Structures are given as structure tokens and as C-alpha cells.
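To the team - 2-deoxy-2-amino glucitol-6-phosphate complex, inputs and output below.
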Amino acid sequence: MCGIIGYCGPKAASEMLLSGLKRLEYRGYDSSGISVGQQNSGEPHSSEATLSIYKKEGKIAALRSIVPQELPGFWGIGHTRWATHGGVTDVNAHPHLDCTGEIAICHNGIIENYMALKERLEKEGHQFVSDTDSEVVAHLVESFYTGNLESAVKAAVSLIQGTYGLLVMHAQHPNEIIGARNGSPMVLGVGEGEMFIASDVSAMIAHTKQVVYCEDGEVVRLTPQGFHVTDLKDRPIDKSIEGISWELEEMEKDGYDHYMLKEIYEQVDSIPRAMSGRLDDTQAAAVLGGLNMSERELLAVKRIVILAAGTSYYAGRVAAYLLESLARIPCTTELASELRYRNPLVEEGTLYLAISQSGETIDTLMALRELQRKGGRVLGICNVVGSTIPRESDGGVYIHSGPEIAVASTKAFTSQLAALYLFTLKMARMRHMAWPQGKRFISGLRALPGNLAQILQNAPALEALAQKYHSAESFLFLGRGINFPVALEGALKLKEIAYIHAEGYSAAEIKHGPIALINPSTPSFFIVPDDHLRDKVISNMKEIKARKGPVIALCTQGDQAVAAVADDVITVPPCDEEFTPFHMVLPLQLFAYYCALQLGRDVDQPRNLAKSVTVE
Ligand code: AGP
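Output:
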């Protein structure tokens, strides 16, 4: 979703902003813009300045092409816009200006009461030029400005209902940026004589690894010399500077054509990273110190509710199956967006798990807050260290998959699974799982990287499969049991990056409706490992074949019965039933990737999508 960046320091602000915006591209956007303050004398400390604004629909490259090279100016703000209010146009792109042209703002989030504010401001004579909700902020700040920019921003945001990660600059306040946060991420970067502010660390990691995470209700005043954080009532807030562990190289493509392909291949390393130091061979258990719960508290858990969105939700569905079958704890997975507004019943003995790669998904964050408000204990299973969900959780597990840049989540899914499998092992070993089963479970986890490396060797076969089937208009993805959510994930991958309509279903459900869709040009992708439901799924495959539907099967090596029915077969190495989701999802990720390539899609930044969904 929208990305924001601000810079003040000795270097050319336009270049710092453009390169920062480039790093924010992965969040998903449709237009971008920058505002750079230029001291009229050309001196960084001159008190007279004007703002130069450049905005452009499309990619950052389009914006770069209209920004003069060597544009003077040492402070500025920039934005990548993911349209919510108003179409994708140059005018609707940020930054937005007030009537004087001296105040510029960039905003991430949604101003819910913007209509009322706009009406009021128009009556006062303010002229609006865009269709966005965000422009009201520029005019609001203008209406409160009497010489102190920070006070004007505080007065303005106290009238705003909704979410914001907001950056404001004023021509008469050279080298000063005001930031305000409510519900949208914001982080400061502390450099040598320079300061950054952005919606995530990727925008500044090339320049500094010293960061300060902002909280809701905080307002920041930034100058090249440092930062000052206060609340809306001007009370100072002490903030600590933290280090980032991610390396810049992890954010590069490293020779791969796309981030998505790189991240698919990385799973061989990212899964063991999620487990590193967390397996206890002696006890045949898992060590998860970050849960912040004693064994006694964990034993008192009677029910688990998982909340998440998208791919993270499907990881939660796999985990719910596993927790119920191995730890014997009733477990359900809920879409965070629905849970929040359902007035959920929070009972003693229920533990909540919020799963989120980005740690910023607003639906998941808001559901977490609602549950905590009711007294619920929420643990976070997240990737981005320092993001909002892990900071607000009562404890949790970082999945350590490293930066995931492609919009389509791949390695985060399997690392989420790895973390959730460890959590299951811990809970199961406190209950019904005996030591030998625990040992076997650990062996299954340890076998994953080797097996996945073998599966990746199927890439050419999956590419050929994509060549054969990419022109299909619609697909069914069918699985059962613990692989039903994997079928849902396979369908989601194909939809989001290849733009092919796909439905994920339980293979058992097709006869209750979806089988009506079957015809010779609608392929069904079956997930049929050698598990206790295999024979039933083979029968479902035959039902599709009988209706002349093409059948692709993802099965265990050497499964002749499946091969005899399917038109095309992709195999994976044998493993215990509970580990099949790891094995099955990789080929589905590669299949979606190659279909998208065949169709010439923008694999890493698919249309309309955002990596970090920070608006409802
Ligand atoms: C995954 O491929 C999607 N891009 C999307 O469904 C994603 O998983 C969802 O938005 C949740 O994101 P999160 O894990 O960062 O909370």
C-alpha cells in the first residue's frame, strides 16, 4: 500500500527520495511523487525556500523521468500511492499542497471524515484540486498554521478520524519534517547528520540501520540534527534507537529474474532459519522463549483461535488442523477482518495467534487490539522485526524468513508453517505427544530442506505444465484435510500473479456444486499425497475425468494409481502426512510463477495488489 519517505540532511533530497521510493515499490502502488524544499540562495541553511513538486501516474521510473537531474534541495518528502479515494491520476498522486503552495503533505491511510472536513474547509475558502481524502490534511494544517508547523499538524490530526502515517513540510521551515502516526506504520532512520522517516525500513536500509519505531498518537519533529517525539498534548516521549538485522543484499534480486522466484528458491534456507535454535532434541520438544508464557499458562490453554488474512490465513488453517490432531486442542482460524466486527467472545483459557508476514496488516492489527481490549492474550507470528503486530502482541515467534519483497507471499508462508509446527510440537509434547513421536516430528522438520531442494528440481516440469495450461480461463485447486488450505493457497497464487480465475475447494466438496464447472478446458489441480484420504481423492479425480475435465495431480513419488488417472503428474518425495503441506505448496508456487511469466504479467508487483495492506 502507500509508502512514505522523508529526508533531511546534507545530500540531494530528490535522489534520496527517489531511491527510497524505489525500495518501497514492493509495497504496491499506482503513482508516486516528491516534494523537495529548495533554499532560494542554494545554501542548506538559508531561511528562504520554495517547494518543487513532481507527481506522476505509473512506475517510479516515470516519476524519475520528470524530476530534473541535480535538483537542488536538502529536505523533502515522497510517496507511492495505492489509490483508495479518487482515480489513478497525476493530480491525485501525493504530495498534496495547501492553497499557498507552501505546505506539502504525504499521507498513508484513510481519512474517514474527509467529506465533512472538506465541506468545512471549502466554506472557509480553501480550493481543492484532487479527489483524494488526503488533500484535506494540507488545508487543515494551513488553517491552523500561525508560525509553528508542529502545532498546526497536531491541531489538524486531532480533527481527523481514520488512519494516517503523515509527513508534512513547509517552505518556511527549511530542513524540518513533521511526522504523525495513527494506525499506519512509521519508522525513523538515524544517520550521521541526516534523518529519514518512512513507512518501513527498506526505504532507508541503504543509509542507516539505526531506527526508531513510532507508535500511534506520536508526532515527530525531524531535522538533520535529530528527532523529537511528543504526543498530541505536547508531552515528550522517550524513544530508543534499535538496530535492524536485515542486510541490504537480502533485498536484492541476486541474479534471479524476479523476487518471487528468488524467494521460492530461498525456502530451502528460510525454513531452517525459522527453526534455528528452537529444536530441543533431548526433550523432543520446541523452545520458544518469545511466547512470554510459562509452561503452566500454556497448559491452561483450552482453545486456540488464529486470526490472519490471505496467505497467512491459509498458514493458520494448516496449523489449526495440526494443533487439533497432534496437540488435541480445539483450534479455529478466522479472517481477522471478520473477527474484529463480529463482537467475538473472549473466554478464559483461549489463546489467540495473530499471523502476519508484514506485521502491519490493518485487519489483523485491529482484530488483535479488539481481542486485547476484551482481555484476550494474543501472540504474534510475524516476519518483519519491529513491525506493529509483534510490538503490540503479548508475545510471539518471529519467523525470520528475511525480507519478502514480491507481493505474492511464498517463503513467508512456509516459514509461518515452520514456526506454527514448532508451536504445535511444544503444545503437543505438553499433552498427548509421547517422546518418540516428538523425535519423529523433529526428524520430519529436519528433512524439509533436503526434500524441498529435490522438489525445486521439478521447476522445468512445472514450467512445461504452465506452457500447456496457462491459457485456461479458470482452474480448480482441490485438496483434502491438511492440504485443503494448500489448495486454497495454490488458487490464491494463480489469481494474484497470473490473473487467472481459480477456486480452491475441498476435493470432497466438488460434487456439491463446483463439478458443474467441469469441461474440457477447465483444469483441476489435485493435491493428492499418500495420506489417509488419498483413495478418496483418487475417486474425486475419476469423477472429473469422467466429465472430460483435464486433471493435474501433485502426488508422492511412485504413486502409480494417481498417475493412471491424471493427465499430468508432478511428484514430491515421500514424507509423514503432517509435513505434506510444505512439499505440496512449492510446486503450486512455481506453477503460478511460470503461468504469470507465460502471460507476461508483472510478477513481483501484480496489478491492484499491495504487499502490506494498511487500509481496511
Ligand atoms: C499473499 O500472497 C498475499 N499477497 C496476501 O494475501 C497476504 O498474505 C495478506 O495480505 C496478509 O499479509 P500479512 O501476512 O502481511 O498480514
